[in-house]
Amino acid sequence: MSQEILSMKLISGEEIIGRVEQNDDDFITLSKVRLIQMVQTGPQQMGMAMAPYLATNIDGDIRIKQTSLLTEPAAPSEDAEKPYIEQTTSIALAK
Fold first, then answer.
1. Each residue of 59-95: pLDDT tens digit?
2. Which candidate in 33, 73, 85, 86 could, as Cys together with 53 as Cys, close a disulfide (CB 3.0–4.6 Å)?
């Protein structure tokens, strides 16, 4: 893929993942941003779910101030990146 996929935690506590469109000293611009949420999948078992970060701008660009980041943007784990790619493209990846 030509665009880098990064995940980050915001100072609000939300963890997000998206494709980097632009990154400078003041803002990072992401597209197809998804909110990562932990969900219970069974007794004493947790899983990960992704939902659009903004319901009114599901796949559009979102500019986030660098000062709003709690962590530096980082490459997501394979367990997070694969479902993200499948959810935001028509690509079905091998399990």
1. 999 999 999 999 999 999 998 999 999 999 877 766 6
2. 33
